[in-house]
Amino acid sequence: MLDKELFEYKDYGRIQINLNKLMEEKNITTYELSSKANIRFQTIQNLRKGVATRFDLEVLAKICYMLDCKIEDIIEYTTK
What we know:
mainly alpha; 434 Repressor (Amino-terminal Domain); 5 helices; 50% helix; 10% strand; elongated
């Protein structure tokens, strides 16, 4: 017999990416960040749009360094 809880929907919250807002505050374009941090333009675009499904730790480290910020300034866990 199948366990009913296996198919029960649970709301685990979500990850919110605040890179777009942070880049606006720091007055840096996607092209500038891409060039200076040696990150693919499309990777930054995906993060800005919130459509990234995976996070490369090296990319996040480069972004934090270039924007002089903490990782929690970029990624936020919410339960709403």
